[in-house]
Amino acid sequence: MSGHVFRVSEVVGQLRSLGVEAGGVLLVHTSFRALRPIEGGPLGLIAALRTALGPDGTLVMPSWTDDDATPFDPATTAAAPDLGVTADLFWRQPGTVRSDHAFACAAIGPKAEAIVKTALPLPPHTPDSPVGRVRDHDGQVLLLGVGHDADTSLHVAELLARVPYGVPRHITARADDGGPVRIDYRENDHCCQRFALADGWLRTRGLQAEGPVGHGTARLARAQNVVRLAVDALRDEPLLFLHGAEEGCAECDEARASVNG
Ligand SMILES: [Zn+2]
Hints:
By secondary structure, this protein is an alpha+beta fold. Helix content is 33%, strand content 19%.
């Protein structure tokens, strides 16, 4: 980690150089650890993202929980730890709107309600989920210090391509009488490491910008392009995103075993 502390204005410049569109919809997955130090910490990064988007832009971050035993409360439930400190601070900021279900995103800007206020999507990342709606709004996906293994839009592509795998998952929701109720579902889940294939698909077509943000590396692509290229690849090879049986990945093995289950 270099000692240089990036000023918010410098980060805004980096985001604009990368191609973040003023007035657009931007879904951000981030590892602040890979970018720091930035003036103001994660809140400084959020300020830079909002400045780059301008008043007509809408900033979206994942905000779901990994707690499957407690009903989700948008006012109190923490974001899953693997989403990072920036995502967990973002939904707590004044003016931010958050979905009212366990597979939440949070957003701020003119399209925030239209993107995050969905019914409970099952499985979590359907085309009508918050992440799916970023694609509907021709949003950009920004990966800050993380790769496509963190790119949830690829789960939307899996569902559009009707991949044959799905592993058992459940959440606990709030029933009409206020009590907890368990909801079981099948999810197109696995280790996600092979989502990194999207780098090659996007790069060869000139559809991904890459450059520095803070001290980290950023990737920027349109959600529609990410999803379209993945759907095309999955139609040729539906298990493309799963590690091979010989590779010893327990999560991908479970997904593979579900195909005929
Ligand atoms: Zn795997």
